[in-house]
């Protein structure tokens, strides 16, 4: 259960539970389920042969020690690499197979071509109503919404852009995703008055989480969900 009393606040495990397991790996998503997270956030790129790959960076160096861009490598080559704890780089289909019916997904679109490929997988697996698509890239959100207007989409930002409220109606958005330090009471109230949900990310201390929950955010993204959930 939540450690705090704001019953509407959902806990989103960032890259699975990146504070406890190698990020964006099946083990990390397994732990998000075990901990009782409401959603698991992940990042996607496309491989050279068009597979949707769950990885944050556009190259494999940081997470595997290998060399190369994800977009220049086939799925077979990517599967030869290992993340920490000997974990493989998973595909989105593998993550869906693991999580379907157990936890909803929050998918961050990172690269050109991901909207169409992701939408195809969501439809194939019948989970379009149980996911949120997020991105810092407005064009990717526009494309996703045109492909499938039924999907929930959210715009991520580090600082509040002057064009924010215009984007809300233009795309249109269901979520806004400010970095935790950009959240104010006024922002939350304005978002709620427009029918939007607020997802605050980079929330990795109890104190910050408590503050954001008091401000009324709807979801918090964290590497350390055990700070906010107790069994």
UniProtKB/TrEMBL annotation:
Q: Which residues form the GP-PDE domain?
A: 9-231
Q: Name one GO biological process term.
A: lipid metabolic process
Molecular-function annotations in GO: phosphoric diester hydrolase activity
Task: Give one Pfam family.
Answer: GDPD
Its domain of life reads Bacteria
Q: What is the name attached to this protein's record?
A: GP-PDE domain-containing protein
């Amino acid at each position: 259960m939540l450690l705090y009393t704001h019953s509407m606040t959902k806990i989103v495990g960032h890259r699975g539970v990146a504070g406890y397991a190698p990020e964006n790996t099946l083990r990390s998503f397994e732990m998000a389920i075990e901990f009782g997270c409401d959603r698991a956030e992940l990042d996607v790129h496309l491989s050279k042969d068009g597979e949707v790959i769950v990885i944050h960076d556009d190259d494999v160096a940081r997470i595997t020690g290998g060399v190369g861009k994800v977009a220049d490598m086939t799925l077979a080559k990517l599967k030869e690499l290992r993340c920490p704890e000997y974990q493989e780089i998973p595909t989105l289909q593998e993550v869906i197979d693991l999580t379907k019916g157990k936890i909803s997904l929050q998918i961050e679109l990172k690269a050109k071509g991901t909207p169409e490929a992701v939408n195809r997988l969501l439809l194939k697996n019948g989970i379009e109503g149980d996911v949120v698509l997020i991105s810092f890239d407005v064009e990717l959100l526009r494309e996703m919404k045109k492909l499938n207007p039924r999907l929930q989409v959210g715009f991520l930002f580090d600082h509040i852009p002057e064009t924010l409220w215009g984007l809300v109606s233009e795309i249109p958005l269901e979520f806004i995703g400010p970095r935790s330090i950009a959240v104010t009471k006024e922002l939350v109230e304005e978002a709620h008055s427009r029918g939007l949900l607020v997802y605050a990310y980079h929330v990795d201390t109890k104190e910050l989480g408590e503050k954001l929950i008091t401000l009324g955010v709807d979801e918090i993204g964290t590497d350390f969900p055990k700070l906010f959930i107790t069994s």
